[in-house]
Amino acid sequence: MRWFVIGTGSIGQRHCRNLAALGQDVLAWDPHEGRRGQAAAIAGVAVSSTCAEALGSRPDAVLICTPPAHHVDLAREALAAGAHVFVEKPIAPGSAEVPALIDEAARCGRLLAVGFNLRFLPSLRRVAALLDDKRVGRVLAVRSEFGGYLPDWRPDRDYRDNYAVSAALGGGILLDAIHELDYLGWLFGDAEEVSASAEHVSDLAGDTEDLAEVTVRFASGVLAQVHLDYLQRAYRRNLQVIGDSGAILWDYPTHAVTVHAADGARDVEDFRAADGEPNDMYLEEMRHFVRCLQGAERPLVDGREALRSLRLVEAAKRSSRERRWVRLG
Question: Does 61 score more than 90 pLDDT?
């Protein structure tokens, strides 16, 4: 199949490499000459002189890896060119135009998938299986954390050039770390209401929030506390699930899933081998999307699933501005 990757920053280049490794025909484009040159250096990847020219070649699928502010417009152009569409998270910086995009993809008979790579991580999938098996009984409360010092994310690049620090481009820790809100929705269902404080508290550049504390009450009754930041010098990503007969702890840096039983027993599963290298989940994400194009599977995260977490971000931002609980309808 013929693929067109729009945006060849770090995630775009990653998808280019992975698609080429899977034997796909890959074309790429970026408005920045330097990033186009980096993409051209990837074995098996060709670079287009313009975006319009590449879309005119009628690719089978388009991957949109630009700053979020451009996602919806580019997705519409891709659909108009007859392509299936994969959009990196978040699907958009705001939800207003997303329902129409979902409807347009349906009218065109094309897939609309959104990139949430943690869905493909074996250790987190193990947590989902434990919950399905009621391993810790009825879930009462959840604590989720993600944090890392933004300038350390891409040491070879000035963080001030990252869309993360620009509200106009769709940055900020709530949208950047929307993975946490996505997997909580995956594991615990629809959110009912949210209370949040999201602010820029550090000396980092930019006009986006770099710290967010979010409390989510799910329709199931589960209460979740979510901490997100661009500030921690020690990278953290973990989830604690508190049930009425035990607890589950998922820790991504150590790739461990620990179950604490009511009788005091402790079971630790080591997922270092299963999780593999960080790129493995992205590679599996592309394998999955290839199978979707072949008709063998349906996207794990389609437009409607991505819209759920985006609306939760919007509700959290509104809660922070208005300093009150906000209901999701």
Answer: yes
The confidence band for 119, taking pLDDT boundaries of 50, 70 and 90, is very high
| Cβ burial, residue 274 (10 Å; 0-12/13-18/19+) | middle
pTM of the entire predicted model: 0.96
Q: Cβ atoms within 10 A of the Cβ of 278, count? A: 11
Could you tell me which of 230, 253, 244, 55 has the C-alpha nearest to residue 154?
Answer: 230
Pick the last residue of a domain from 88, 115, 142: 115
Nearest to 213 by CA among 163, 143, 296: 143
Same domain, 85 and 225: no
Residue span of the structural domain in which 136 resides: 118-327
143, 195, 234: which is closest to 317 by C-alpha? 195
* Same domain, yes or no: 203 and 140: yes
Please state the rounded mean pLDDT for residues 121-147: 98
Same domain, residue pair 261 and 208: yes
Q: Do residue 88 and residue 149 come from a single domain?
A: no
- Predicted confidence (pLDDT) at residue 187 exceeds the cutoff of 90: yes
pLDDT of residue 18: 98
Q: Largest Cα–Cα distance of the chain, in whole Å?
A: 64
C-alpha to C-alpha distance for 223 and 140, rounded to whole angstroms: 7
pLDDT of residue 28: 98
